[in-house]
Write a structure and sequence with these properties.
By secondary structure, the chain is an alpha/beta fold. It folds into 2 domains: 92 residues, Beta-grasp domain (Ubiquitin-like (UB roll)), CATH 3.10.20; 70 residues, [2Fe-2S]-binding domain (DNA polymerase, domain 1, Orthogonal Bundle). The chain has a 6-stranded mixed β-sheet with strand order 1-3-2-6-4-5, sandwiched between helices. Helix 2 packs across helix 5. It is globular, with a radius of gyration of 17 Å. The structure holds FE2/S2 (inorganic) cluster (2 copies). The site of one FE2/S2 (inorganic) cluster has 12 residues, from loops. The site of one FE2/S2 (inorganic) cluster has 10 residues, from loops.
Amino acid sequence: MSNLYDVLPAEAADDVPVRKVTIRVNGESLSAVVEPRLLLAHLLRQGFGLTGTHTGCDTTNCGACTVLLDGQPVKSCTLFAVQADGHDVMTVEGLAGPSELHAIQEGFKEEHGLQCGFCTPGMMMTTKALLDENPNPTEDEIRWALSGNLCRCTGYQNIVKAVMWAATKLQDQ
Ligand code: FES
Ligand code: FES
């Protein structure tokens, strides 16, 4: 166990059941003692300090909290932390290399795929899952893949262009 985070609320009674979870997050094994009701999004943000994962609706609608669980996009506001025990999680913090942006991040920058940026981490993680599975998606396939991620700023057009930019860059690499 490389880290132990106690993310129980201070007022938690002694008799609240807790469970230790160990999750490989962005390649690093992290552990925490949590209440079984704790959401994965809250463990990532408050327990592990990975605040790139946003929470917008807490009701599985907006997609801002999207992370990859064993490579599949999931809404981390809809998953308990204990459900990720023993699994791999990738957050937006895991996208970039040590000194360079990931092609997906570059694409969003180059094609102005964001305005306020609130939806962007979730958009990028869904894009990562899409391009891992389908490196050369059509516009329709991109719009379908991102249909669970809401953006109230951009009108989506530039997000689609950003994904296409990233797909081209990744294929050229
Ligand atoms: S915060 Fe999870 S879908 Fe909106
Ligand atoms: S850029 Fe503001 S919600 Fe998408």
